[in-house]
Amino acid sequence: MNYSVDNTTSNPTSNLSAELLDCSLPIAHGIALISTNAIVGVLGTLGNLLVCVAVVTNRRLRRPSNYLLFSLAIADLIVTMVCEPLVVAILANITFFNDCAANLEHLFKIFSRLSCAASVVHMAAISVDRFIAIVYPLHYKSILKSYGLKALLITSWIFPMTAPVLGAVVPENFPKGFLGLGMFALSYATVFMCYSLIVISLAKHRKERNQLRAARSSRDFSQSRRSVEVRVAFTLAIVIVVFTVSWFPLVATFFATGKLLVKSQGIAYMWIRTLGLSNSAMNFLIYGARMRSFREAFAAIGRKYYRGVLNLKFSRTRSHNLT
Question: Where are the bilayer-spanning segments (predicted)?
Answer without folding.
Answer: 27-56, 68-97, 117-139, 151-171, 177-203, 232-256, 268-287
